[in-house]
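QUALITY CONTROL LOG
STEP: pairwise intake check
CHECKER ROLE: data steward
CRITERIA: each record must contain a sequence immediately followed by its structure tokens, with no blank fields

ENTRY 1 OF 2
RESULT FIELD BELOW
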Amino acid sequence: MPAADRALLIFAGGRATRLGGVNKGLLRVGGQTILERILDALGPLAAERVALGPADALSGLRGVRSVPDLEPFAGVLPALAHGLASTTADVCLAVAFDMPFASRAVFERLLQVQHERAADVVIPRTAGFLEPMHAVYRRAPVEAAINAALARGERRMVAYFESVRVEEVDAASLTDLDPPGRAFFNVNTPEDLASARQAAGDDLPGR
């Protein structure tokens, strides 16, 4: 599927309390903001680039179409539903605003799995946890399934899985694409930010 049929959804929904409430996407890592790093790495994979989150987190952003949350800080499932509703693209790539090493190569592998297995959701699992904000979604069926789950009062991230075709990808199978194991790294604390900045000093070409 060509990039014209895809949207990149960048989620900025966290409160960043452990970082003093700063806009994490505008923190600088390796000489760029995290948002710039995400757009450089993943922008070529999608024709549309959408940033979603609280209105104050979206102010002043460049290179994206900003869509304020309807229900700020409501959790992953409502945020994902809102993101999918913000576009008409067939396939959506979801990534968090605080992932400075989000990987184009990993997303290309996820897209390959999605195409080959006709999956509605392709989601990595790392250290026993699913990564919904570094995953691929087929918009129409997933949006419908999530809305049905929310209508039932479900907020669990996996509440809609039984209604769609889900392919989990073990992060261990992605080490050839992400040798340092950084793709799913989130900046949540000052220590995380320091680690990201240190790692960016010897970052790999193409991320």
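ENTRY 2 OF 2
RESULT FIELD BELOW
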Amino acid sequence: MFDINFVERSIIAAVLIGLTAPLIGSFLVVRRSSLIADSLAHVTLAGVTAGVLAGNLQAFWDINPLYSGFLFAFAGSLIIERVRHTYGGFQELAAPILMAAAVGLSAVFMSISADGVTEWYGYLFGSVVSVQMEDLWFIGLMTIAALGLLAAFGRELMFLSFDEEMAAAAGIPVKMFNVLLAVLLAIVISASMQVVGVLLAGALITLPAAAAMQWASGFKRMLLIAVIIGEASVAAGVTGSIFFGIASGGGTVVTAAFILFATLVLRTWINWKRNRRLKYERHQSA
């Protein structure tokens, strides 16, 4: 990672994000908390616009919006868990509350400094070809952190995602691991900014996992299939960005959505064929 061109940087960044985003997304999907991904993505957007604004106003020197985006996402992950705990039986309110506040804050920052629109576009929808070495180091460190935490606490997070009450009864500190999952999500979203953009990061996190659910008979297999779909999606996004100038985030998410819709159609057809065969067999045996 010391002397590589923009194509190699793009590929490395895409591979790392294609690995981590679907992994975290699988936990969120089985937990039925995928909306949190979009909420934290909008919080990250507020951080990005704050970083761009600070750079334009020269309030700080050489500030990287990736860092400010991560700081906002990290703070947002803690806030959203606190709001979820406060509302108790209405925990789903935490996501739209945080999303609304983040979008409003982003609009304020953007309106103050209009000359950052071009730079914001890359963070909004992804511009993998503009990944610099500093950005690649950041993505690499975030990936290592996410994979390390998953390796250390993946079993507890899986237990928590499937049945929070049973996890608590088994002695797992539910509140701590809820925060950990939110922090992992913040890490992945902040690392995904330049590959798919903050507005589309939630889609890369959830779509591969949603498609994998249709084929997997167990959670580990779901993780594997989700990663394969995620890598295929980012490969298409990077290819479109490098050769055709398409926003990498758009190409990635459109590919992931196509795979999901194709999966749903294929599974519907398979189920129809199976049910038809069963009816025929029952009719023959009658």
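INTAKE CHECK: passed for both entries
DESCRIPTIVE NOTE, ENTRY 2: Residues 6-205 form a domain with the ABC transporter involved in vitamin B12 uptake, BtuC fold (CATH 1.10.3470.10).
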